[in-house]
Every structure is written in structure tokens, then in C-alpha cells.
Amino acid sequence: MRDPKLDLLQELGNIGAGHAATALSQMLDGQKKLQLIVPEAKLIPFEAAANIMEGTEEEPVVGIYIQVSGDAHGHMAFILPLDSAMAAVELLTLDSTGELNEMALSALQEMGNIMITSYLNALSSMTDLTLTPSVPGVAVDMAGAVWQSILAGAQVAEHVTLIKTDFYTDDDPVGGHILFLPDEDDFERIARILGLGALG
Amino acid sequence: MAQKVLIVDDTAFMRMTLKNVIEKSGYEVIGEAGDGEDAVSQYKELQPDLVTMDITMPKMDGITAIKEIKQSHPDAKIIVCSAMGQKPMVIEALNAGAKDFLVKPFDAERVIEALKKAEA
Prior knowledge:
The structure holds 2 protein chains of 2 kinds. By secondary structure, chain A is of the alpha+beta class.
């Protein structure tokens, strides 16, 4: 039987990511019509966490990451392939030079910030917990390196709960992953608030 | 005379976006601050008519900056523009003296509407 905790996490991930997708769509809309779909919100067991970028480890990506504090703690990241990031930059800044300059990085930082915070806002309104995002960090590197540094920053011990949602747009240009690593103890509390009772 | 606006946000991209929207509607952007500390000192120096204030920023957050500005300038007209739209944060900002709270992403009309309402 599937752990009800996983179902709950998946549902939280779906709702949070749904809000993040809406936020992204609003940001990019007006310049180009985008349709965002959220095809999967899956829980990755933790031994596998370090390997989730397997196959794409060497792909250049942009990662925007945030530490969550307040009534519950955790880490969140938005990781998107570099070409996808540049497509987003062009839509946001109307700069089509393809240069990852200071303004481009600033636009990506703000895009990630708004998406991740929208995700947290949705979780907050469901749970009545305040989930405060930190100032976002931005990294440009190979996918494996970016993900490893996010995991290292999260100070994951021997177990990690990970909710990963992939984004696509139907006419391509922007896609990526949004990742949420809630602190295990706080997650138990969230589950109780949402009426799941004690979880084994 | 055009109303003078101070824009406070830690990302250059958001400052640029807000500046475009605000100037198109006939306001004059007289300053841009990248954190709360900078906002407090620029407010004192420039005495703007209106302020747009982000919340999550390095050095000093927007709520603290609103409180500091309000302490020395109780008539300051400040509108929050933040992605962090959770209820307790909105209440805290309004209690600190913010006139309005816009949750990012916002559309241009909503920003101008809030500025007009605040200046009235």
C-alpha cells in the first residue's frame, strides 16, 4: 500500500506547483501565449535524491534556490536548462542577444523567486503556516553540480523528502523542474494540520 | 507636477519593470533602492511622494524599512510589491503602515491603480 504521506506530499506538490505555474504563465504572458502543464509531482526516495539529475548531469542549467523558514522549514529550487532560461529571459526582458548578463540573471532570479514564493503562498493558505522565503540564490553550472550544491546547502542527513515537479510548455521554449525539500519534522506537523493524524 | 516615486526591490529586473510601468503613467521615478537600509536612507534624502516596497531583501527586509520610514515620516505613502502574499505578512505590512499590498506577479494597471489610490 502506498504511504498516505506520499499521497499528501504529492497533492501538496501539485497544488504548490500549480500556483507556481500560474505565476510563471502570468509573468510571461502578454508577450507570448504559454500553456503550462504539470504532468508529474513525484516523491523521490532519498537514496536516489543525489541521482535525480542522472542522464542530464552535464547539461548546463540555471538554478534558483531559496531557504524556507518561519513555521516550517525546508529548501526549494527551480532548475531549468540554460536554453530554456534564455528563452524566458527574452520573454521577460525583450533582450534577444542571448547574453547571460546581469539583467538576465536578475530576471531569472526574480522569476524563480516569484514561482517558488507562489508555491509557498499556496501551501501557507492551506495550512495556515507562515512559510518565509529567503533572498534567492542563483547558480549557472552543469545540472549535477547545481543540484549537488543545493543538496549540500539543505544539509540533508541520511534521509530526504523530495517533491519534484516538471514543467513543460506546449510550444516549447520554457521548461524545468521545481523541487521542494521539506524538513521531515515540520512535514509531520503539516500532515497533522491537514487532518492526516499520526503517520507511521 | 508629477508625483515622485522611490522604487525599492532587490532585483534590478523588477526595478526596471516597475520603473517602465510607473513612468509610462506620468510619474517621476526619483530613486531606486536595492535593500531596506538603502530605502530608509534614500527616503530621508529624496522625500518621495510614493514608495513601492519589496519585502524579502538582503540587509533589511521591507517590513522593517516601512516601520523605520514611518517612524520619522508618519505621512509616508508606501505600497508593498512582494511575491510573499501570505496573510500574516499582508497584515503585518498593513499594520506597519503600508497603504496597499500587491502580490507579484502583478499587472501594470494594478500598480498604477494602487499608486493613484495611495496619493489621494
